[in-house]
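Supplementary material to the annual report.
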Amino acid sequence: MISANLLAIFYLISGILFILALRGLSSPETSRQGNFFGIIGMAIAITVTFLSIDNFSSGFLYVLLFLLIGGSIGAFIAFKIPMTAMPELVAGFHSLVGLAAVFVAISAFISPEVFNLGSTGNIKLASLIEMSIGAAVGAITFSGSIIAFLKLRGLMSGSPITFPGQHILNLLILISIIILTYFLCLNQSPNFFWSLIAISFLVGFLLIIPIGGADMPVVISMLNSYSGWAAAGIGFTLENTALIITGALVGSSGAILSYIMCKGMNRSFFNVILGGFGGTDQTSSKTSKEQKPVKSGNADDAAFLMKNASSVIIVPGYGMAVAQAQHALREMVDSLKKNGVKVSYAIHPVAGRMPGHMNVLLAEANVPYDEVFELEEINNDFANCDVAYVIGANDVTNPVAKTDPQSPIYGMPVLDVEKSKSVLFVKRSLSPGYAGIDNDLFYRDNTLMLFADAKKMTEDIIKNL
Amino acid sequence: MEIDPFIFRLSIFILSIFVGYYVVWSVTPSLHTPLMSVTNAISSVIIVGAIIASLAGTNLSVFNQSSIFGFLAIVLAAINIFGGFLVTQRMLAMYKKKKKDKK
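Predicted assembly:
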């Protein structure tokens, strides 16, 4: 058994290694090393915890057994999961962190003496508050992530589910959580503890159902942040530095990502959380617009345009992920490059269903990361580019966001696709995007609509190149 | 006068939030998905709590009310640790720079 002081120092070291793991992600070259630091940090934390246990009861074998079971399941998932399923995988993983936090909190509540927190029914007040926070936030993370998982997986409708009195109900529940915590601290009755957890599960559920599919980047980031705060809450309860540091890191990481995503949509965080973006009314009021002439073309036209261009910018969106078109896209780009065309990729911050979603898919298709650019880096290049190939993106290219103050997406940063000489827009129909508004780009003179499935169209273009 | 150890933990917590803030802002946007999966993996360090909880039983009864929750938490956290780090590794391995010899 090692001393408590030494233990604390080792936990501090793991915490520092976790910081280095995140630091490594500042560039793809250092990222693999960063991940390695993270693994070492975790190994140190687990090993010293084992060393701190003085009586090696037979329970120890079970610890190893369960560790192995969980580890094999995790490794199996990690190797089998297709890259397109990454958003739901991350949501699923968040739910596990949340539930683990709840379980640890329950365990600490049942036998506080194991954690030196006092005795059953007589837990230190501060520890009780900390574990209630950990359990409540963990439970919210769990049920919220489950809903996010179901929506991303398509097992549940991605459209926002709203009902009258929703916000008032949420408010009442939040107040009841505070009241329950108060009574729990007063008499430490297990009933209050169980009700607290049950109600927190309900909050997570109610919080996520009104949020629609395209707002998922914010939701996932937010749940990421929650899982961190839950870990920190448990860290305070267990007086564990590694958990406190990690919780704070993950919590702020998720919060920053949520902020970046909200900014990418020019919406406030509360606006997203309160749900219900873009009503049906906007769609109906613009129906007259659909009478406008639209130029449509086929794969042959598209191939001709791109072959004779000197520079092409590709704008991928969620539709590319759905159609699994990233590999076909890279093949198309390869043949274009053989024809001497300069090709780059432009990625909007909220393209896809989670932060960085498009980048991972392109990386999977072997697109070098130095050909992929963020909105601010590439937006000026559209003016000098011959062809913009929009594949599976819609609202993020809508020029209305710059021109029409009445539009619900007004002020949202968009890719200046319309400035390029010609725009090829791959889409199955003229239906509006998620925001429920018509894309002005469809009716521009320099736009050629390619009505087809993203993958099919891209493959047809390759044949014609 | 003595300072409550809670204050020290709170200081660590708040300083870590600041560290996290600056470190995460320097993460390149193209690696935001691996960032999420790796933060997910490291937040599973909660497993240390689960291990302590699971050894709450005695030699005679390994499984009691409290240790069962500990064991369940170990399984969940282990899925996350292995799954999270490995999937991050898999993603990061795909990020490649442009090569001259590529067609």
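The CA atoms of residues 29 and 35 of chain B lie 9 Å apart.
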